[in-house]
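For homework, think about our next protein:
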Amino acid sequence: MERVKKFLADNAKAGTLRSLTPLIRLGRGWVRLLDSEDRLLDFSSNDYLALAEHPEVIAASKKYLEMFGAGAGAARLMSGDLEINHLLEEEIARLKSKEAALTFGCGYLANTGIISAMVGRGDLIITDRLSHASIYDGCLLSGARAIRFRHNDMAHLEQILQEKRSQFNRCLIVVESIYSMDGDRCPLLQLVELKDRFNFLLMVDEAHATGIYGENGAGIIEEDGVSQGVDIAMGTFGKGLGSYGAYAAASRELVDFLINKARTFIYSTALPPAVVGATLAALYLVKSEPQLREDLHAKVAFFKKQLRKNGLKDDPGPSQIIPVMVGDSVKALAMAEELQKNQIYVKAVRPPTVPEGSARLRFSITRYHQEEDLKRCAQHLAAALGKISA
């Protein structure tokens, strides 16, 4: 217990102690903290397309709840393999231009399960230095040799491949198409070119791209035209699709392999029917209503324009995830508190989620945000930054 007490005290002093903040969702992007009457506009949600509150998504969720009950009752390989799971997987495979797909309980379970199934001792994994924690944990669980390359540095990756690839039988490279804390894009075209030369399996995490990019909302893989060069397209339902869960889309053979090898799939209860219904409805909306993502992209562009007007960012980055770098964790917390006084709810992201010295406020733009809200947020952000820096 002394170790526990010291850990908590040290993190509190450094400004990196995490705590839960109960809140109530008021609708249309507004929240209220449980111990307050103040309305706050949420800038930390990943419900980018505002589908969690879409009437068709809610209706489908209710329908599946009434038809199939509250829970699946078992893992898929027992008696939890309802027909609706296969319908969802067929839709995902179609969206990602793959032969098959497999659903998981969440993104963390998907990444840890897929990676640890695909490679093991004597194999090589190479991943980006800023990859999500679930990717790193998948690497650890696999027992394979894991090497990191400098963020988005394809020259460094090529150097590692030249030096190490021939020493291992199998090689898996895992990247994110949109990086969750920095909001920048992976150069997938260059990555696929390297794959042709060095013979590795390529897995791309599209958690923050699914539904938002590409002609059909299939993600950066679709937008960059590299679907056939990607062996495993992983993504989540809990962000752009407004639901919950995750998927892997790949060849039929690879999906059958994961059914038999991915422990986080084998030993997990199937997704609740209401979640499956919501996700199916969200997928339909993403494919049939491209204006949803067009609206989001317009709001992202407007907010970045407001940031520049207020002297905050010269290069706001290419996605709906906009980090405002602070550096010091205590200052990042102070900035978040200052913004909260002005009805802006944004979380300070601190180590170990991000590297030491790179604490930040991570703004997620969603379709809930109106231009007046975005303009006001940029103004208050500039004022808070000036106050904390003074």
Notes: The mean pLDDT is 96.
